Amino acid sequence: MRTIDLSPLYRSFIGSDHLASLVDAATRAEKQSSYPPYNIELLAEDKYRITMAIAGFSQDDVTIEVQENTLTVTGKKDSDNKDVERKFLHKGISERNFERKFQLGDHVKVLSADMENGLLHIDMERVIPEAKKPRQIEIGSRLIENK
């Protein structure tokens, strides 16, 4: 197992403790399976889309939840359909339950989700508050706060 020495980050960057904690969490995270397959697209400068191939799942079988900076997509099939015994000559479509987690960046908001042709589309946008946007400070100027 590889370890990453993050001490140069702590010396070089202000606020790198958040970056370091994200790297630590990523290295400690359990290995996720590759099911279901997904794409992450950049639609515009601050707009993103996750597309997941979830053939065989209906809208009622899928749950999408955002908590803090983690997007969790869970698919659970009803066990009622398992009562019917089926014989497959070839089974290439997986019908297993899944849970896929995505770590969202700061200020990323989930806008919408829809399903079409066995694909789940989740649209997101990064909305940076005005207070967090860069601003230019002129030399010789003074910030005066109203009390």
TrEMBL record:
SUPFAM superfamilies: HSP20-like chaperones
Keywords for this protein: Stress response
UniProt entry tagged with the keyword Protease: no
Pfam families (UniProt xref): HSP20
InterPro entries named among the record's database cross-references: A-crystallin/Hsp20_dom, ACD_IbpA/B, HSP20-like_chaperone
Annotated SHSP domain residues: 29-142
UniProt signal peptide: none
Family that this chain belongs to: Belongs to the small heat shock protein (HSP20) family.
Name of the protein described by the UniProt record: Hsp20 family protein
Organism (species): Alteromonas aquimaris
Lineage, top ranks: Bacteria, Pseudomonadati, Pseudomonadota, Gammaproteobacteria, Alteromonadales
